[in-house]
From TrEMBL:
Species this protein is from: Ignatzschineria ureiclastica
Gene3D superfamilies reported in the protein's UniProt record: 3.10.20.30
InterPro entries per UniProt: Beta-grasp_dom_sf, Mopterin_synth/thiamin_S_b, ThiS/MoaD-like
Protein name: Molybdopterin synthase sulfur carrier subunit
Amino acid sequence: MITITYFGNLKDQLHCNEEAIAWESGDTELLLSQLRARDEVWNSALAPEKIFRVVVNDEIIFAPVELKSGDRVAFLPPVTGG
């Protein structure tokens, strides 16, 4: 199992704060691909052209990394200030 947390407007768009999913093997790109395949809302919210960060075990990643059971993944939307 891996735990995925969605923050900010991603949480609102996906109507999901956190979930645990079974995970055998693969990297963060495979995970994103599987999540996007859920439906059009997920595909749009997590589209490659959207600006968001992927965090694995409390570390922002900038390239795909392998995930293993027990990992914690988070998706951070763009932050705007004012």
